[in-house]
Amino acid sequence: MSARTSRSADVSLDFTRVRAEFGLPSEFPPGVLAEAQQAVGRDLAPGPRRDATALPLVSIDPPGAKDLDQIMYLQRRARGYRVHYAIADLGAFVVPGGLLDREVRSRGQTLYLPDGIVPMHPPVLSEDAASLLPDRIRPAVLWTMDLDADGELESTSVCRAVVRSTACLDFDMVAASLRAGSPHPSIALLPEIGRLRRALALRRGAIELGLPDQQVVPDGAGGWRPALRRRVEIDDWNAEISLLTGMAAAQIMLTAGVGVLRTLPDPDEQVIARLRDHAEALGVEWPAGAGPAQLLAGLDSTRPEAMALYLDATRLLRGAGYTAFDSGAPSHSGHAGIGAPYAHVTAPLRRLVDRFGTEICLAVTEGSRPAEWALAALPKLPSLMGSSDQIAGRVERACVSQSEAWVLASRVGHEFEATVLRIAGTTGEIFITDPPVATRCEVGAVPPGGRLRVRLTSVDPETRKVRFEAVPPEPIADEAIADAAAWNAATIAGGDPVPEASILGARLTNPAAGSPRAPAAEADR
């Protein structure tokens, strides 16, 4: 048996060490702040704006969020639907080539830590002048998309506008109003449109994983703990509006032969074959003629074997990146996780690339050549975003690991029930239900989807390391199996999976900013 140890070094229960480890900036340079302040009240974007303040647009965001990128209004047409989707317009505030522009390029995206955010833009913009806060008139880019009765996109228009949000809703509020049959009129059609778009996604072969979001939340005693939040329907329906806009933007760019796409290569046949073998080993039937998307969509997400398959299916989503082009459509333009070409244009307050993609779409639809500053940036964006995504993923992993070490520090020597998610040799990736911890451990011959007991042998909060060892097998009560399969509702804190972030999808909760939120929160793969 391994030595049982717990290091209780004086590690403050915040994420200062994580910020220092990754060199995250704590403030903006004075010149950047001055430039941002000077931009307030001015509109630096070219051309006129449509007055769209009469549209009853509303936002759906986590409680307390201030950096609001999107507001929507959904209408029924005689033979389909109209989606109005207004996006914060950073082109009104950022001087190309200025100090602020250079600073946000160096940051790449907003980072969400449990105890606060590292914003991409100064808060005077991201949480005030540029944010689509309720009852404020704001510059925006307005996407108007007409759908047919099946939810297919028929036409798209995009223009600069001034808008006013009429309400700031949160996910729980929207879900409760839908259950009560009294949704806000502006989004009453969201379930109807969302279900249609989800059905279309499945037919496209879009890969959707049922992994819960892994969060870090306050523990009620001044510290932090890991928690899980299952995705619910309202998450998916809201994400479908953003995905719709991103796919519309991609088509505009591809038609014009200029832009920047979020791309993901099709999975290798060997990866699919491995998933088939894994499904067979777990006793999961793969329907004849079905692809991975249909298999995954048909799983019961509360079952351990489903969790094991979801995790293994993250291999289908490896290799995401950005593809920039300005002399015709690229040879590879698709996103295998979405089943269609896709672009990031819906989160410009929190992600760098969206501002450039938006400017390309505006210019193309106006019949003009995109601005030279936007074209000049295109070749650099994939590298800038790739570096930023790597930092964001590492920060998320560090915060989750830190919270796991804190919550386990006093439980060295305790035993836990675990589910094996996948294995490599004799080492398995395991999930412990209470507290919700995903880690690695020697599992011997226990297969994916199998269960075992593990003992916590050491914890080091300073290095964020925890170690478990397998306990000789004993029968596990049926009730315990059911609890593990259901992920133990008592641990669910509250979801777009981020396979690269940790064993499970990761989201960090920041009370001040109203997270859980990440740059990919609304739809991004």
From TrEMBL:
Name the source's superkingdom. Bacteria
Q: Which GO terms describe its cellular component?
A: P-body
For region Disordered, the annotated ranges are: 506-525
**One GO BP annotation of this record:** mRNA catabolic process
Boundaries of each RNB domain copy?
Answer: 49-367
Q: Which GO terms describe its molecular function?
A: 3'-5'-RNA exonuclease activity; RNA binding
Q: Which residues lie in Low complexity bias regions?
A: 511-525
Q: Which InterPro entries match?
A: NA-bd_OB-fold, RNase_II/R, RNase_II_C_S1, RNR_Ribonuclease
**PANTHER family for the chain:** RIBONUCLEASE (PTHR23355), RIBONUCLEASE II, CHLOROPLASTIC_MITOCHONDRIAL (PTHR23355:SF42)
For this entry, the protein name equals Exoribonuclease R
Q: Which organism is it from?
A: Actinoalloteichus hymeniacidonis
Give the organism's phylogenetic lineage: Bacteria, Bacillati, Actinomycetota, Actinomycetes, Pseudonocardiales
